[in-house]
Amino acid sequence: MSGPYAAVDLGASSGRVIVGHLDDGRLHTEEAARFPNGPVAVPAGEVTTLHWDVLRLLEGTRSGLRTAAREHGPLTGVGLDSWAVDYGLLDDDGALLGNPVHYRDARTEGVPDRVFAHLPAADLYARNGLQVQPFNTVFQLAAAAGTAQLAAARRLLLVPDLLGYWLTGEQVAEVTNASTTGLLDVTTRRWSEEITGTLTAFGVDAAALLPPLVEPGTVVGPLREDLGGRLVAVGTHDTASAVAAVPADQPSFAYISSGTWSLVGLELDAPVLTEASRAANFTNELGLDGTVRYLRNVMGLWLLQECVRTWEEDGERADLPTLLAAARQVPALSCVIDTSDPAFLPPGDMPARIARAASHAGQAPPRNPAETTRCILDSLALGYRRAVRQAAELADRDVDVIHVVGGGVRNALLCQLTADATGLPVVAGPVEGAALGNLLVQARALGDLDGDLAALRAVVAASTETRRYTPAGTTTIWDDAERRLA
Ligand code: LFR
């Protein structure tokens, strides 16, 4: 038996420390700690900015690792993964300059067009291969141009790399997460001088801020605190770790990493940088072992989470099992919305925004939480169907099964709707995909596991239960629903 390895997996609403041991080709996992996470709105002058409470996350991480070491003995390895794009800035002394800004903050509104005035969108895509999202780091940096904080900054570290720096003293940029910044050349897997050069037009010397890149599987160094282990740069982008843990046994699969976001796409050997791919807003993020994660960000269960928050604030009963049971009774596809509408990105009154979007699309808006929940799930399934079909077409690949990993695995109705909408079988599990991918990459980096991605996936398959959903009915009603949004 080897281990214990500790995976720190930070999500938009919670952080988790999961401990794993490898035994005879199986990974045994246990949750050692869980702590809350969420945006904090902070006023400064006239403007209120959404931040991450990154010091709380550091404390949750450290105390979780201590618990893990106390309960399981000295740690063999530690790996960190989180959401992408957001960063902390350090000054000349290596001290943090303020709390990182949350990707849902409004500061990047309208900024992509200002960047495109210097480097046209098509040229940017030809280099970084990224879907245009206002929160891509390249746009966040342009938005931050001229601030006192950025002027004082000497180093930029993405969230997992920032925590890694605090745990080890080492400053690196792990490449899967770096690939979400928009500053990386997706073909060479190096920082793009042309893109960082573009930011100089905004007075931002990004090249000077960026640390050296490392591939996932690099041993970063020993922990400062004596907990036993070494920090491994895993796929520090949670989606990269989750995709590594898809228990597929053959190459023609699509995946949905399903949580606050749904990341829907394919694993490829090389990026797709065609104009058609750019027009369809597909992203080429980097994955484990030289792979490319060719995917689209679908708005995800955020839509439902934010509705639940609003209903609870309004004093309505909104527990998830009750909502999902009620949503099952609502007729299918009565109302669908285009989940890619950027209006859904910021926090706020989500039920009202959904009702507005339905009315704009000429449909009767949902009237209660059950109808709204059903509208969200139908619409997500429709979004998955579009993404899987377009990805397969643009990458010229066959898809004959969809793997769902992450928290959304627990949503049986959504999994079934995904099968129905796509006409493909859906295999759901594991729930803790990112943590499993994180643990296995540590084990391999530290010499306790051999093999390629397929070998890691075989360990996941041997270690977890999955559930299979078979498509029911025809996809005709989904074709009609899609036309309603065209
Ligand atoms: C999912 C995720 C997505 C990324 C989004 C924002 O947790 O990492 O992949 O686009 O968060 O960073």
From TrEMBL:
- Residue ranges occupied by any Carbohydrate kinase FGGY N-terminal domain in the UniProt entry: 5-229
Q: What is this protein called?
A: Rhamnulokinase
Q: Which residues form the Carbohydrate kinase FGGY C-terminal domain?
A: 254-445
Which residues are listed as membrane-spanning?
none
Which PANTHER family does this UniProt record tie to the protein? Answer: L-RHAMNULOKINASE, SUGAR KINASE
Name the UniProt key words of this record, in alphabetical order: ATP-binding, Disulfide bond, Kinase, Nucleotide-binding, Rhamnose metabolism, Transferase
Q: Which InterPro entries match?
A: ATPase_NBD, FGGY_C, FGGY_N, Rhamnulokinase
Tell me its family: Belongs to the FGGY kinase family.
Name the Pfam families on file.
FGGY_C, FGGY_N
